[in-house]
Amino acid sequence: MNYYLTISTASVAAFVSVIYLIRKQREYKWGWCKDKQKLNGKIFIITGSNSGLGYQTARILAKRSATVILACRCLEKAKEAISNIRKETDEGELIELELDLANFESVRRFCKEIKEKYTKFHCLIANAGLSLKEPFLTKDNIEVHHQVNYLSHFLIVNELFDSIKSNNAKVVIVSSKLHESGKINFDNFGKIVQSNKRDNKYYNNTKLMNFYFAKELYRKGIDVNVLCPGLSFTNLFRDYKPKFYHFILFSPIILFFLKSAEQGAQNIVYCATNSINTDEVNPDKSFIVMNLRQEKSKVNLKDDVSEKLWKISEKMCRTN
Length: 320
Ligand SMILES: NC(=O)c1ccc[n+]([C@@H]2O[C@H](COP(=O)([O-])OP(=O)(O)OC[C@H]3O[C@@H](n4cnc5c(N)ncnc54)[C@H](OP(=O)(O)O)[C@@H]3O)[C@@H](O)[C@H]2O)c1
Ligand SMILES: *[C@@H]1O[C@H](CO)[C@@H](O)[C@H](O)[C@H]1NC(C)=O
Hints:
The structure is a single chain. This protein is α/β, with parallel strands linked by helices. It has a single domain (34-317), classed as NAD(P)-binding Rossmann-like Domain (Rossmann fold), CATH 3.40.50. It is built from eleven helices and six strands. The chain has helices at 2-30, 52-63, 75-86, 104-117, 144-159, 161-167, 201-219, 244-249, 251-257, 261-273, 303-317; strands spanning 43-47, 67-72, 93-98, 123-126, 170-174, 223-227. It has a six-stranded parallel sheet, sandwiched between helices. Helix 7 (201-219) links the parallel strand 5 and strand 6 (223-227). Helix 2 (52-63) crosses helix 10 (261-273). The protein starts with a helix and ends with a helix. The structure holds NADP nicotinamide-adenine-dinucleotide phosphate and 2-acetamido-2-deoxy-beta-D-glucopyranose. NADP nicotinamide-adenine-dinucleotide phosphate is lined by residues 48, 50-54, 72-74, 77, 99-102, 127-130, 148, 174, 176, 228-229, 231-232, 234-236.
């Protein structure tokens, strides 16, 4: 009896160790941003930084003594995020600012405040995003994924374009690998189009817009990176309300593919900080950084599409 108990305990222990080792090997492969250089006096603006990847990015940058502006739709949540970071570190400076990306008026107000107080910022991280089960029209009469995931970030960059250009500020756009299945429908741009598919095409499509947006900024001489953080454990899927049995069902995926939010933030921190202390323009001529291993997107981004997207976005945001 004792003999069998020993054998089974040993096999369980071996099994757990193998899983653990595979997990560690995965984490090693995903990579960590090793740079620990201090960022005193450097100003980073992060949209949607009260939760998930944006929060972790703010936290990591604060620990490196940066000034971080947490641009969030709910000031209370931003303050709570700041007090949580403050439990860990006194370094850096953390400032909350109100920004509701589903409302152009709020975006314009936010940009005005940045221009008045923080015009010499070093990096803008367009991170906020959502994925909803049911699309709806915002106050500005635009389909919500279009506005939050893409158009409002387009508007921010346009409003702050002169500061970005004159200070050589960096723009980091958080997209997703799902952009590879995205499509841009110029005929019904920003509208709700009925379909019988259950999954969220607006998410994929707006994440593709993020790539074209980055391409056009690159063509305009901006130091820009667009990236996929990789599948990470955040609040992004809150609308799908995962149940406990989903976690059991998907446990192999979770164990081998799901990053912690802190690890997911590594790509963002890497793009936001690389070459920032040297004031050099990004020596890596490629603007697409899918991850720390510099994987490339499978999409062939065409110039005429990025130009067309820029034009239609200007019209939607009434920037010209
Ligand atoms: N997690 C992943 O696996 C994954 C994979 C690929 C790409 N991404 C991308 O990573 C980015 C960050 O997402 P996350 O995973 O960290 O999700 P998250 O935890 O849900 O964080 C999203 C952030 O965006 C904010 N936001 C949503 N709507 C907004 C609005 N109207 N105005 C201002 N802020 C708004 C949220 O604020 P509230 O808390 O107030 O809602 C939150 O701070 C997104 O662009 C997402 O597409 C994530
Ligand atoms: C979104 O992208 C994922 C991954 O490529 C794909 O499985 C899914 O079908 C796409 N959704 C739509 C509606 O195209």
